Amino acid sequence: MATEDMIRGRGAQLNVQNRFDAHSHETRDDFLNYCAAEGEEAHKNKTVLIDTFPKTIINKVNSPDVGMGYSLNPYQGCEHGCIYCYARNSHEYWGFSPGLDFEQKILVKRNAVQLLEKKICGKRWEAETIVLSGNTDCYQPIEKKLGITRKLLQTFLKYRHPVGIITKNALIQRDIDILKELAADNLVRVNLSITSLHEETRRILEPRTASIKKRLETVEKLSKENIPVSVMMAPIIPAINSHEIMPLVKEISERGAQSVGYTIVRLNGAIGQIFTDWIKKAMPDRADKVLHQIENIHGGSLNDSRFGTRMKGEGKFAEQVEQQFKIARKKYLSGRDRKPLNHDLHRQFKDGQLKLF
């Protein structure tokens, strides 16, 4: 992998044009040459936190193939820097680039806990599972300092409200005490994202995420505490991690995972340009092969917005992946059923006071 000239600790290697911005910006070669001659950095590789105070925090998810009804994201932008992340495009709505800005300019929703409590205590709200991290990871690095996700979980526990979690950070281990209490009433399910078993692949695809060792350890620890945990192998990228399906499912089954899901990579919006630039710098020897295979999965395009096919793709490669997961589930995860979360316990709070059973 040709990573010598890449920006260390980041996924994206450039800031692409924001589609809503009337003005464009580019880093010219003469500026880069000047910085090199003067010993200066052309790009400031620092993370900046931006406080925000939105009016609402819970998003209704209308997409029929996403698998969740409501999501809550305490942070916008994500320092993990996963190069393939579909959430990058959402940063454009805040006036930033989906490239480096997405990883370096993190918006913090300071009133997230208050907004959640107000929403679920409303008379019209009927308990539905709310998923933390439907867009950006609720356990990204800054959470260790701010603890907003922990406070959100405490609120879900207080009102006995069902919650789902999607993350790729071992920081979730910090909150096992709360998760155990939620799990005792069948109020929580964790989905841990593990894209590869190889640390080098993880490091280049997801530069600021928890190591593979720590993620596998997290699956095991949650399972031993009777906290329901499943794994998402997302995304499957041809010629990068597509050969790892069987060994990965075997490994997570031995760690106690209940189930496994997957998506196939699709490079929607600006992500196509960001990913193409990245792979030609990071993996020049296989860049064309990977890009062509992604196009073959999605009808000749890097992007696919069609409901029903966009997550799983189509064609021979997609069929092979689907069959491998069927075989892997049957061989390694047979009989491990996931129960639906409990939506009944929250009813006792609808009149503002605890009812007697």
What does this protein look like?
The chain has 357 residues and is α/β, with parallel strands linked by helices. It has one domain: TIM Barrel (Alpha-Beta Barrel), CATH 3.20.20. The chain is 33% helix and 13% strand. The strands form two sheets. Strands 2-3-6-7-8-9-10 form a seven-stranded mixed sheet. The longest helix has 17 residues. It starts with 28 loop residues before the first helix and ends in a 25-residue tail after the last helix.
Quaternary assembly: single chain
Q: Return the CATH architecture.
A: Alpha-Beta Barrel
Strand content: 5-15%
How far apart are the first and last residues' alpha carbons, in Å? 62 Å
How do the SSEs run, as a string of H and E? HEEEEHEHEHHEHEHHEHEHHH
CATH fold-level name: TIM Barrel
- The CATH superfamily is identified as Aldolase class I
Helix coverage percent: 25-40%
The rough form would be described as globular
- Give the number of DSSP strands: 10
Quickly give the structural class.
alpha/beta
The rounded Rg comes to 21 Å
Organism: Autumnicola tepida
Keywords: Iron, Iron-sulfur, Metal-binding
Protein name: PA0069 family radical SAM protein
Domain Radical SAM core: 64-301
